[in-house]
């Protein structure tokens, strides 16, 4: 099974996208829309202080009657961030996401964030891995 490090090496987007905790939710949503992502790291002075997702927006802005222009990211972000390391397997990450009901995992190495994985990244990698195994089996059977 593929590791997180291998998956990050194959990801097309290499740069991390982040916002500051004092940005408004509206500004963070603009960044997310521009980059076509469903979650974004919240960083302050190089440290991850939270993660902000579309789910946070739906549950803590829309359902609570707040405004995105008048609310800071700090006020609604998820501050208990769960990290994974580059040596962990894709299967371990999927199990963690399923167990914790989360859709994004920052990857931490040497006390710094080196990537952000989405459930879509993991599903795509799993499907690609299964297709490779099937192709190898077909090749073996035919020879």
UniProtKB/TrEMBL annotation:
Residues 12-68, 77-132 form the CBS domain. Keywords: CBS domain. The keyword GTP-binding does not apply. It comes from the Bacteria. It holds the Pfam family CBS. This is CBS domain-containing protein. It comes from Vogesella alkaliphila.
